[in-house]
Write a structure and sequence with these properties.
This protein is of the alpha/beta class. It has 5 helices and 35 strands. Among the domains are: 72 residues, no CATH class; 105 residues, no CATH class; 74 residues.
């Protein structure tokens, strides 16, 4: 007699700690055990949560078994349930305002889209921040969404990690998460230590490692500033090394401990006072005083305050001085052409000249407005309603231009009065004023054709006649030792 195959039971396997349920139907299962209802009961007995998707999967599997051809001895199995993984909460983050994004700085050797070479003098980006600006917003960590296994048991989601941000007193995190700057400066973010800094220390030189520096605050450079680089700061600047042919723009005081060797190509603009070992080939302007240890050579420099060269000379170039001047000597024995203009307030006079030019430009706006006003008024009843309405606007605009002109004139006069009242003519020379030196005071020009040895003091009397006095000697007219003449102011 042929051997009868043993009937096997359908069964459910739970895999991977309940993340998957697989229903297997042997080919020789008893028909009453593989009906849809029987299979659903079996799945429920194994603890699988039966939802619409699981119900559909079981019915499809039952239908496959029922429709198998005669003699098919293969077992049928299929996954009928899959876990729903938890969605873990996103970590807290900062949504930066675009221009404050830390990754917005240029890097690499060329732009990825345009293949434009990077300006290596400006590779290092420092983001300026004004007090009150919003830098970004802290987005709180997400709670996440719990998952479940095939039996319906909950699988807890992890909450996102908090942001270990460490803001200092220069920024404020507001109730809605906004990060607001409390002062002007430059954005600093190092290991989530967030600050607005107004002091910068450069360990080496200003060169390709730092790029040009444009900083809101004070800067200290432990080395120098290399050729063709720019350092711009709104506060004080101290440079312990050599300042080469570079541009130095300072909103406060400036100290160049080893001096400035600009070689006629560097520029220096200082709103405060300047101190340094020496100045060579510098073009620029200093609003305050200048104190130099050794010498000023070949400079084109405008100084609003006093100039003091403690142990050396002023040689070549042109020096415009608003205050007093003191130096060991002026010019050289070789007759180097050296021009000193003193006795004025160059900063104030230059500002007054700019105001005068601005007033002239502004005054040109009045005539067309007045002509238009007169034309409408002369039309009388023939003027349109729109033209009549424009009279009020024209009158206001004319009044506003005249008000601005009046304010400009008041400012210009104040500057001229200040320049006149503060005028200083005092030159102290301990060794000599050499031939080739020209000293300009107002509309008087004094040219030295021979060397005048010191120590001496040069000034003027109540009639503004140029005079000098040798140490321990009497006051003499400068025309006795130099060629003095009137020149155009």
């Amino acid at each position: 007699m042929p051997e009868t195959a043993t009937e096997r039971l359908p069964f459910v396997r739970l895999l991977d700690n309940g993340r998957k349920a697989v229903l297997e139907i042997p080919s020789n299962s008893a028909p009453e055990l593989v009906t849809e209802d029987a299979l659903l009961g079996l799945v429920r007995e194994r603890g699988v949560l039966v939802d619409r998707a699981v119900d559909q999967a079981i019915r499809e599997l039952a239908a496959r078994h029922k429709s198998r051809p005669a003699g098919d001895a293969t077992d049928i199995e299929s996954a009928i349930a899959e876990w729903v993984p938890p969605t873990h909460g996103e970590d807290a983050r900062i949504d930066w305002v675009e221009r404050f994004r830390p990754d917005a700085a240029t890097s690499g050797d060329c732009d990825a889209d345009t293949a434009t070479p990077v300006d290596h003098y400006n590779r290092v980006k420092r983001v300026k921040v004004a007090a009150g600006e919003v830098l970004g917003k802290i987005v709180a960590p997400g709670e996440g969404i719990d998952g479940r296994d095939v039996s319906g048991r909950s699988i807890a989601a992890n909450r996102g990690r908090k942001l270990a941000l460490q803001p200092d007193g220069s920024v404020q995190v507001e109730a809605d998460g906004s990060i607001r700057a409390l002062k002007d400066g430059v954005l600093s973010l190092a290991r989530l230590k967030l600050a607005i800094v107004d002091t910068m220390e450069v360990e080496g030189a200003v060169d390709f490692s730092t790029g040009n520096i444009d900083f809101v605050g004070s800067v200290k450079v432990s080395d120098g500033i290399r050729d063709n680089f720019t350092l711009r700061a709104t506060g004080d600047v101290t440079v312990r090394g050599m300042v080469e042919a570079s541009d130095l723009i300072v909103g406060g005081d400036c100290v160049c401990e080893r001096g400035v060797a600009a070689r006629g190509r560097g520029h220096l603009l200082v709103d405060g006072a300047l101190e340094g070992a020496y100045l060579n080939g510098v073009c620029g302007r200093v609003r305050g005083s200048v104190t130099v240890a050794r010498e000023i050579v070949g400079c084109e420099l405008l100084v609003g305050g006093d100039v003091r060269v403690e142990r050396g000379s002023i040689v070549g170039g042109t020096l415009v001085v608003g205050g007093a001047l003191r130096a060991a000597s002026i010019g050289t024995e070789g007759g180097a052409k050296t021009v000193i203009r003193i006795g004025g307030m160059p900063i104030q006079l230059a500002k007054a000249a700019r105001i005068s030019a601005l007033a002239k430009e502004l005054a040109t706006r009045v005539a067309p407005l007045e002509e238009r006003q007169f034309a409408i008024t002369a039309s009388g009843e023939k003027a349109t309603a729109a033209e009549k309405e424009s009279l009020t606007e024209l009158a206001f605009e004319i009044a506003e231009v005249r008000r601005r002109l009046r304010l400009l004139e008041e400012k210009r006069v104040a500057l001229l009065v200040e320049a006149g009242a503060s005028r200083v003519v005092k030159v102290d020379v301990s060794k000599a004023i050499h031939a080739g030196t020209t000293i300009l005071v107002g509309n008087r020009e004094a040219k030295f054709t021979s060397t005048l040895k010191g120590p001496l003091t040069l000034g003027w009397d109540e009639n503004r006649n140029l005079q000098f006095r040798l140490a321990g000697g009497r006051v003499q007219e400068l025309r006795d030792v130099a060629s003095v003449r009137e020149v155009a102011a």
